[in-house]
Write a structure and sequence with these properties.
mainly alpha, transmembrane helix, globular, Rhopdopsin 7-helix transmembrane proteins, transmembrane, 79% helix, Hemolysin III, membrane, metal ion binding
Length: 229
Amino acid sequence: MSADEAQSLDEIILRRRRPFTVAELIADGIVHGVGLLVALIAGTVLITLAILHAAGQEIAAIGIYVASMVVLLSASMAFNLCPTGPLKAWLARVDQAAIFLFIAASYTPLLVALGDVPIAEKLMIFVWSTALIGVALKLLVPQHFGRLAIPFYLAIGWSGILAFHALAAALPPTAVWLIVAGGVAYSAGIIFHLWEKLHFHNVLWHTFVIVGATLHLIAIFDAMVISRM
């Protein structure tokens, strides 16, 4: 790929992004920092307690969720705070690919908790296969399918509706409603993600993401630790 072609690709990947103010960047950095602290501290506590109260597969699934949350927020922070240029375009690929992995990882502990319920296995295969396809598209051909990314995220994210009855029967009511609330937080945050003329829109978007991720972390804690104490 020539230098001109590489520059053109970078511009496509970073299209429509307006320069953020210093205040917006500082606020975004703080939000990401808080999110990472939550992921590292609460995630460590969750894994530690899960070792005492959960089965081996469940512990591994929880570890996948916590690790993916840390990866997502780290990639997002690096991308959003990086100056415009080739590195930022590369980080954009990683950031958007990490979203697909995080969505699949969010389902993993809860579906593992369902055990041998048929819908759990089918949904697990669906979310991970579609997520990996999304990762491949974002890393290899990021200039394509850009407009389909958000509908793709939402479709995978809300596919859990197919297993709602199974989840409601197997998990504590509090955990079920925390899962729903987390999904609503993610979906509501997309409004601010798309509202690019609004100052601090990116900060608000990332705040909703962290709220959604935290609600799901609490749901996992309730379902796999608190309910078993």
